[in-house]
Amino acid sequence: MLQHAHHHIAAALRNLGSLLPDRARRRRPANQLTQPWRNDHDHSHPSVGITPSRLLAYLHAADAGAPNQQFELFSEMLKKWPRLRSVEATRRFALTGLDWEIATHDNSTHPNANSAASFCRQTLDQLPRFREALNHLASAIGFGIAVAELVWDRGQLVDIVPVPHSRLITDHNQPWRLRIRTADEPTSGIPLDDSPHKWIIHQPNPTPGRHFEGGLLRASTLLYLAQNLSFKDWLIFSQIAGMPVRVAQFEPGTSSADRNQLLQMLQKLGTDAVAVLGKNIDLKFVEPARGGARPYEPLQDYCNTEITILWLGQHLTTDLRNSGSRAAAEVHDRVREDLLTHDVADESQTIRRDLLTPLVQARFGPDVPIPLFRRSLVQAVDTKTLASTLAIAVNQLGLRVPRRWVHQALGVPEPQIDEPVLSNENPQ
Q: Residue 215 in contact with residue 204, Cβ under 8 Å?
């Protein structure tokens, strides 16, 4: 009787969407290796009390195959240095902010070439975390490497899981082999090259044989060290700058207890401005030299300028305080466009190799040409200039330009069926 009632209660709770486990709803693909675990939330805060020797120890540990401290330090640098946070986001958003598309391989005559491109486009559109994965891969500009896991279920790609940088290590005996720590292998990790169609490995400007030396991380750490140490000294200096130096003289033979008490009184003078001293104590106030010298500001400006040049290739678009003009800034901004083009090419190569290739081969076989992953760089072009260029290309040169691409480039939505439109024939 009780068992029968228990079944009725359990069924009623499930129908109401209770907290009872629903195995069908919580089911995950069995081959997803990057499962959440406790170590992803542990932090050692390596930037606290950073010194040149500590920084060198972090870099040496990364060279030995344990880059966790190096990666965690860079994450904290982004939180503590506003200029680095700004230029890193500018460089990364310049890439991820562009629209992407899947294009058929150039000059391909294979009958399934268009079908392969359409299949890849539809698959990626349906992935809930594809944009998150692209943002994670773009972080390799700074970290030097970013890895994402392809989750397959019954031969279909169902998810892309960004792999935390803290999971990455290398094989001690074979340092060229990249590994990922998992809950089943928390120490030695699992090798990525054993499953070539399981991982997206993005390494812009890689150093051959060394997985953790690429990116802009290491050059940024040196500037951060100088900026961080000088900023701390600047804060201490700002607390005492302009304050008179308090000097007290005491008679020979004064006990150490009296001297310590006198020192405490002098310290309180800096805040309370009140002290009780004996007649035998000679108190003097030495006024500091008056001047406009700011010993730490030039070093701060130097670090901010150099970190901007390192990430953006220029600094006039962010530093127009002392010199430069809008025209010069626009010229320097085109140098940054070169870096963006390079970032787009790196990303396209990685996505085509590690994502589109297994997608196409799993569906169409090895003979179908792999489509291309592209970013739309026309968003960085002035629309008036683009419209003039299109008019010459179409009307004078007779080039065939896809209407969909033109609408996307100019930011003009395509009209729906039976929707009123403005045109030369119908200006109303």
A: yes
Query: Is there a contact between 374 and 100 (Cβ–Cβ < 8 Å)?
Result: yes
User: Do residues 317 and 332 make contact, with C-beta atoms less than 8 angstroms apart?
Assistant: yes
Maximum alpha-carbon separation in the chain:
106
What's the pLDDT tens digit per position in 116-150?
999 999 999 999 999 999 999 999 999 999 999 99
CA–CA separation, 354 and 300 (whole Å): 42
Does this model's pTM top 0.85? My answer is no
In this structure, is the dihedral angle defined by the CA atoms of residues 10, 16, 19 and 22, taken in order, positive or negative? positive
Structure tokens at 427: 């200006």
257-279: per-residue pLDDT in tens?
Answer: 777 777 777 666 665 556 666 65
Q: How far apart are CA 200 and CA 160, in angstroms?
A: 9
- Nearest alpha carbon to residue 149 among 46, 31, 234, 248: 31
Helix locations, 241-292, DSSP H: 256-269
How far apart are alpha carbons 175 and 66 in whole angstroms?
Answer: 10
Q: What own/partner pairs with CB < 8 Å and gap ≥ 24 does 349-356 have? A: 350/137, 350/200, 350/201, 350/202, 350/203, 351/200, 354/150, 354/199, 354/200, 354/201, 354/202, 355/150, 355/160, 355/200, 356/102, 356/120
Contact (CB, 8 A) for 191 and 177: yes
Q: How many CB atoms lie within 10 A of CB 206?
A: 17
| CA dist., res. 212 & res. 108, Å (int) | 37
How far apart (Å, rounded) are the C-alpha atoms in residues 15 and 22?
11
Token pair, residue 240, equals: 């005492």
Q: Where are the beta strands (DSSP E) in 71-202?
A: 100-103, 146-153, 156-163, 168-170, 178-180, 190-191, 199-202
- ∠ CA 146-151-153, nearest 5°, is 170
How far is residue 381's CA from residue 98's CA, in Å, rounded to a whole number? 12
CA dihedral 155, 160, 164, 170 (to 10 degrees): 40
- Per-residue burial over 360-385, b = 16 or more CB atoms within 10 Å of its CB, e = otherwise: beebbeeebbbbbbbbeebeeeeeee
